[in-house]
Amino acid sequence: MTAANRYVYGIVDGDTVEFETDAVAGAERVYTISHRRLGAVVSDIDTTDPEETDEDAQRHDDVLREIMDYDGGTTVVPMQFGMAFESDRALKNVLRGARPAFRRAMNDIEGKIELGLKLVCEADADVDREAIETAVADLLEPIATQSVANDLFSDRLVLNRSYLVAESDRERFDDAIARFEDEHDDLMVKYTGPFAPYSFVDVKIGAQQ
After folding, report:
1. Whole-structure pTM value
2. Which of 15, 42, 107, 167 is least surrounded, with the fewest CB atoms within 10 Å of its CB?
3. Does 82 lie in the same domain as 137?
4. Among the three residues 48, 79, 110, which one is the final residue of a domain in this structure?
5. Residues 89 and 141 both lie in one domain
6. What contacts 52, CB < 8 A, 6 or more positions away?
7. Tens digit of pLDDT for each residue in 151-193?
């Protein structure tokens, strides 16, 4: 018997995304439920309150990457982990109500990816954080469309930012990171991505029912 609830990964334009994969909560198929050309990419799940295990959090991110790569590249407005709805009707109501916000978000992120940069120093190192922040900004801000600061959750973190970068500028951005790393061997550079652009989407989609 198929689980009645729908677990949502993200919102796309249209209704064509469908593939088999290792999805959240043991599901094996991802597909689209659509309303007026907006599609929620979902898998079946037996709860509306899924537990965020490390394994399922990774599956959520992996599915989003597969959606981004689908059919030569698909723009997806990513949802945070845990959005599950008890019926197709409830989900379509959300698509209807948030349609303008989803459309705006889709336009903002179309053709773009999120990349992350963390700069880490040695413990007790004497680092000019302001000079490093300025150097990074001068190098990367002209390439990125937007950037946001993330938490400095460790004393050793000198910088922690996410960047929204056009896919066509990815190589330029990669090269700029490589140049910075060559010039700052006193810092550990942690360059991550691409990710679905979580940090640049702020769409609230209401109750999970």
Report:
1. 0.85
2. 107
3. no
4. 110
5. no
6. 81, 82
7. 999 989 999 999 999 999 999 999 999 999 999 988 999 999 9
Q: Which two tokens stand for residue 71?
A: 């059919």
Q: What is the pLDDT of residues 97-138, one digit of tens each?
A: 899 999 999 999 999 999 999 999 988 888 899 999 999 999
Cα 157 from Cα 136, distance rounded (Å): 14
User: Which residues form the domain of 30?
Assistant: 5-110
Residues 136, 187: one domain? Answer: yes
Tokens of 136: 């990074």
Look at residue 204 and tell me if it is in a domain. Answer: no
